[in-house]
Write a structure and sequence with these properties.
single chain; mainly alpha; 4 helices; 0% strand; extended
């Protein structure tokens, strides 16, 4: 089906444009920031002149806790460039990965040396200090469903 919606472009033409634009944006990000072995996340590169720096709340120059994240997020939103592309599939885009602007992800006074041996033994890459450490694993949830998750919790409680 190749119908032309209001505006004159067919769906095929619009899709072709979206794919070309996305490839162009990805090339720009790689040219500016280097290779990215990760999800794309819908991020677009900010203008060259854009420079936001986080506000540290720790002596090591990083920020931690809900207050630190909130203060920095508000600071970023005050200066974040607006992205408008009427041909884009999304209304607005983001340009800054806040967690990458933190020089230290975990405060040194909260060290966890008692965990390091097992992490190394089992090849665990810990999420401690990561901004999505408490984010759920959606794959597990989608695979098991609500009933399966509940069964898993109940089974684990019995052990």
């Amino acid at each position: 089906m190749n119908m032309a919606p209001a505006g004159g472009l067919s769906y095929d033409d619009r899709l072709r444009h979206l794919v070309q634009r996305k490839a162009q944006q990805t090339r720009e990000k790689i040219a500016r920031f280097g290779h990215m072995d990760e999800d794309d996340l819908g991020l677009v590169a900010p203008p060259q002149e854009f420079d936001w720096q986080p506000i540290p709340n720790h002596a090591n120059g990083s920020f931690y806790g809900a207050a630190g994240w909130a203060e920095n997020f508000a600071s970023l939103l005050r200066v974040h460039p607006t992205y408008v592309d009427p041909m884009d599939a999304l209304a607005g885009r983001w340009m800054v990965f806040m967690s990458r602007r933190r020089p230290v992800h975990w405060p040194p006074e909260l060290a966890y040396p008692h965990l390091l041996g097992e992490q190394q033994m089992y090849g665990i890459i810990p999420g401690i200090g990561g901004d999505s450490h408490f984010g759920p694993d959606y794959t597990i949830g989608l695979k098991l469903g609500w009933g399966g998750l509940l069964k898993k919790v109940r089974d684990c409680r019995k052990q």
